[in-house]
Amino acid sequence: MKRLKTVLACAVLAASAVTAQAQSQDWETEGLSDDAITIGVMGPFSGNAASYSKALIGMMAYYDKINDEGGIYGRKLVAVQEDTACDSAKGIAAAKKLLSQDKVFMLQGNSCSGVALAMRPIIEDSGVPWIVAHAVSDSISDPLAKNIFHGVPTGSANGRAMAAFVLSKPDTKKVAIIEHSNDWAHSYSDPARAYLEEHGVTPTEELTMERGETDATAQVLRLRQDKPDFIIAALYEAETAIFLRDLKKYGLGDIPVMGTAGTDLENTMKRTGDFDTVKNYYVIHSYIDNLDGPKMKPWADMIHKYYPDEQLSTFSFVSIGSAEALVAALKAVGPDLTRSKLIDALNQVHDFDTGILSDPITWTPEDHQGVKGSAVAGFVDGKPTVLKAWGQPY
Amino acid sequence: MQVSSLPRLRRRLFWAVPVLLLALPLLTNEYTQFVANGMLIAALVTLGFSLVIGNLGQLAFANTAFFGLGAYASAILSATLGLPWIVTIPLSGLVGALGGFVASSAALRGIRAYYLAIITLAFGELMRWVYVHARPVTGGTNGLALPKETLFGFSLSDDKVKFYVFLLVAVLLIKATSNLLRSRLGRAIMAVRENEVATASLGIPTARIILMTFAWSGFVTGCAGALFARHVGHVFPESFGMIQLISSFAMVLVGGLGSILGAVLGAVLLTALPEYLRAFPGLEELFFGLIVGAVLLVLPMGLASLLRRASPLFSERYYRE
Amino acid sequence: MFLQLTLGGLSQGAIYALVALSLTVVYRSTTVVNFGHGDFVMAGAFISYVLVVIAGVAFLPAAVLAVLAMFVLGVLFSRGLIRRVRGGPHIGLALMCIAAGYVLRGIARMVWGREVLPMPRVFDIEPIFIGNLVITGDAVFIIGTVLVLLLTLFGLLAFTDLGKMVQAVYQSPRGARLIGLNVELFDDFSWGVGAALGAIGGILIAPVSLLHPDLGASFLIKGFAAMTLGGFGAPFGAVLGGLILGVAEQYAGAYIDTSLIEITAYLVIVLVLFLRPQGLFGRKAVVKV
């Protein structure tokens, strides 16, 4: 037994010696070569949240564009994709593989807030820079971790923007909420609720509609009794279409509905197949223009250049802004790139206009939640239009 | 080979594996170590599951619920009540055993075969609903994060430290289960599988046998849940759904129904497989289906039967051929 | 509101009924519960999508072709895979069904994994208003189709020799074999019919639910619950169970809490098995020892 103990203690000691990563010069330039910067891209490339991985496709198309333009000081951006399947254990395995086996220089990516939350302690300990490119939960970047940067509007920015838009409609008194029972939906609805409470509005009806439900009759009939002035809907793509369809079916098509950044007007209309059903649907829209508008066209063309078959949705564009900020920071660092220098440069990104996100990116050493607001999109005169508040174009 | 030396050899082999594994952290990086830790947890989950569906022969799918109960018990006890995590392992086992007790009540009411499958499936999904909606206790959909801790001065955030704890727990539980199956009780468990009425007519209290098997399965799986909580560091309701159930179901059958060796083999193989399939994102389901289907066709008694055929060393005498 | 909920519940329940019935058809002749059936439902919907949207076939012929294709797939599945594992442990069959489902879902994911596709609607009938009650084209279409199907099927079972043969195989496969029935062929046929009926369910629901690889997952559990409620192996019970479940979900959601809709099926399963395990029409489900 004593011998066993000694063996055990030795093994633990040896093991932890290997783990204790001295933040040495080697570490600073790990994953870097003269012609490549390796970037770990984690995302739900499989499983039932795979539609989120469109976000990472758009981002990688941007890498390709930069590479075609000669890269950054001769270095190409090389994406190393890892699947998280939107599952926490699988996501941690992905992060550990990228960090300790592929030894990438930095990380950018990850949809699915739960997975990102589970990864956070590991990535924080590693010190490797991580730009959160899609997941929205505030707790990923708050409390501050010095190497973790949020490159999209967070849940509270989005949720508050949703509630603010709802209240900007004159005479909005009764607000109802319908949502999935999952962390994604709550990351929108909780801050929205908080904002409403701050303005003296308590939701009159709180409903759930779970993923995979193909009918919303019960929910809609409850809404018919409640007669809200506005409905906040934190639902995924398919369920949004079903809900809106049932809303119209039971004669409530005139009540405006506020959706999340998880859906967009163009595809929702395509899915319901009918303009009348979506005419009062509004969504969080983090971009400067409609998805098919002229200012978004270059980005759409860019994605199609590298991924010709990709069907575009709101997800396709969401990570491009943070990729631009990354490229700007990499350029600012100069040819002698290190991880610490990159983190310093990211902290200098100030009021960075991405030409795609509606709000600029600002990272400071004290605050890594870079995008503070979101616009809203809705139909005006039958056309998707980006809005600042009710009836006010962006 | 002398007849008497075979069990001794087998015993040596049993202990040689964990002793050799003590050196594993010298060969791994953080990623491979994390996967290896996952294998140990999967082995316990598969063992607990195999006990019910293989040894007892009951088509009960409640083990995902035991796993979730164990993980939540560990997270709540250590995050909310501040107990050291190591202490929560046996307590989580007890909570899992309680789950097993509840699940066995269905079997004891005479609900069997597909009925039992479906009601235990429902039990698992109802538990998941409870995790989501009991927000003040479970943290709802945001789950519960385990606090950072040290054990004898070693950080429990280190996968290599976790490995030794997991290994110890796994070896203890596997050994205990093996002893249990070799005992009088173990033979009674398998007698219930073969013919419940005949077993009862011998004066064996079949109801108590069923209850105890479920409870032990729940204990093993509950302990595995506590390990899982530390493994991921954060407990979410989504971790205990259908996907988890189907993967452990596949582990049992690929390894070999009712075989301890098979449970370990199945867990190791089917934990490693998705990691290899990482190179083909989006194709995991397809490959998983194909591989499991192929094993079922070619090796209906699982991988363990292959080893048994190779050498008597691997025979498990409580196993039906 | 009560009437409206009932109507909505019936139109959902009709789909559950179809899924439960297709599970029952397979269970009656083979005593296997197809744990991969949800994915068969999804596959039927996807095949018709491919035919309609990509190959440009009209809806009705496309639906017929999709159902036929699923029938063939069901037969092949029975012949090629299920027959071979029948000798092994019974739960090997359950896993084989799951594996087949995973393969189907994996194929759908490989091609359409990142999309939620709209399925063209067949009949865009204007909804009818009777006072506060709205009767939609979808509801009429779904309930009508299921009704016609059920009448045909029960007619076949009740008034033809086929029905007697099905009953014979269900009662005693060995007896059926003794009087010269080819039980194996019968099994294959049942798998085919089960898959085809499931496919019809998928084709009916897809225009409402939209198309994605996880479309079928929730229908499996609803089918189980409906089967349990109606009594295993009782076709009429499965249909009634499906309708009751559909309506119960709506009542629970509207009168108690919408978060209960998700678990109504599970609650039904637990309650039925504890209170009346044989369901409404089934054989005795409990064993006494």
From TrEMBL, chain A:
<comment type="similarity">
    <text>Belongs to the leucine-binding protein family.</text>
</comment>
<feature type="domain" description="Leucine-binding protein">
    <location>
        <begin position="37"/>
        <end position="380"/>
    </location>
</feature>
<dbReference type="InterPro" id="IPR028081">
    <property type="entry name" value="Leu-bd"/>
</dbReference>
<dbReference type="Pfam" id="PF13458">
    <property type="entry name" value="Peripla_BP_6"/>
</dbReference>
<dbReference type="InterPro" id="IPR028082">
    <property type="entry name" value="Peripla_BP_I"/>
</dbReference>
<protein>
    <submittedName>
        <fullName>ABC transporter substrate-binding protein</fullName>
    </submittedName>
</protein>
<keyword id="KW-0732">Signal</keyword>
<feature type="signal peptide">
    <location>
        <begin position="1"/>
        <end position="22"/>
    </location>
</feature>
UniProtKB/TrEMBL annotation, chain B:
<keyword id="KW-1133">Transmembrane helix</keyword>
<keyword id="KW-1003">Cell membrane</keyword>
<dbReference type="Pfam" id="PF02653">
    <property type="entry name" value="BPD_transp_2"/>
</dbReference>
<dbReference type="InterPro" id="IPR001851">
    <property type="entry name" value="ABC_transp_permease"/>
</dbReference>
<dbReference type="GO" id="GO:0005886">
    <property type="term" value="C:plasma membrane"/>
</dbReference>
<keyword id="KW-0472">Membrane</keyword>
<feature type="transmembrane region" description="Helical">
    <location>
        <begin position="163"/>
        <end position="181"/>
    </location>
</feature>
<feature type="transmembrane region" description="Helical">
    <location>
        <begin position="60"/>
        <end position="79"/>
    </location>
</feature>
<feature type="transmembrane region" description="Helical">
    <location>
        <begin position="85"/>
        <end position="106"/>
    </location>
</feature>
<feature type="transmembrane region" description="Helical">
    <location>
        <begin position="286"/>
        <end position="307"/>
    </location>
</feature>
<dbReference type="InterPro" id="IPR043428">
    <property type="entry name" value="LivM-like"/>
</dbReference>
<feature type="transmembrane region" description="Helical">
    <location>
        <begin position="12"/>
        <end position="28"/>
    </location>
</feature>
<feature type="transmembrane region" description="Helical">
    <location>
        <begin position="34"/>
        <end position="53"/>
    </location>
</feature>
<dbReference type="GO" id="GO:0015658">
    <property type="term" value="F:branched-chain amino acid transmembrane transporter activity"/>
</dbReference>
<keyword id="KW-0812">Transmembrane</keyword>
UniProtKB/TrEMBL annotation, chain C:
<feature type="transmembrane region" description="Helical">
    <location>
        <begin position="223"/>
        <end position="248"/>
    </location>
</feature>
<feature type="transmembrane region" description="Helical">
    <location>
        <begin position="189"/>
        <end position="211"/>
    </location>
</feature>
<dbReference type="GO" id="GO:0022857">
    <property type="term" value="F:transmembrane transporter activity"/>
</dbReference>
<dbReference type="InterPro" id="IPR001851">
    <property type="entry name" value="ABC_transp_permease"/>
</dbReference>
<feature type="transmembrane region" description="Helical">
    <location>
        <begin position="89"/>
        <end position="108"/>
    </location>
</feature>
<keyword id="KW-0812">Transmembrane</keyword>
<feature type="transmembrane region" description="Helical">
    <location>
        <begin position="6"/>
        <end position="27"/>
    </location>
</feature>
<keyword id="KW-0813">Transport</keyword>
<feature type="transmembrane region" description="Helical">
    <location>
        <begin position="129"/>
        <end position="159"/>
    </location>
</feature>
<comment type="similarity">
    <text>Belongs to the binding-protein-dependent transport system permease family. LivHM subfamily.</text>
</comment>
<keyword id="KW-1133">Transmembrane helix</keyword>
<feature type="transmembrane region" description="Helical">
    <location>
        <begin position="254"/>
        <end position="275"/>
    </location>
</feature>
<feature type="transmembrane region" description="Helical">
    <location>
        <begin position="48"/>
        <end position="77"/>
    </location>
</feature>
<keyword id="KW-0029">Amino-acid transport</keyword>
<dbReference type="GO" id="GO:0006865">
    <property type="term" value="P:amino acid transport"/>
</dbReference>
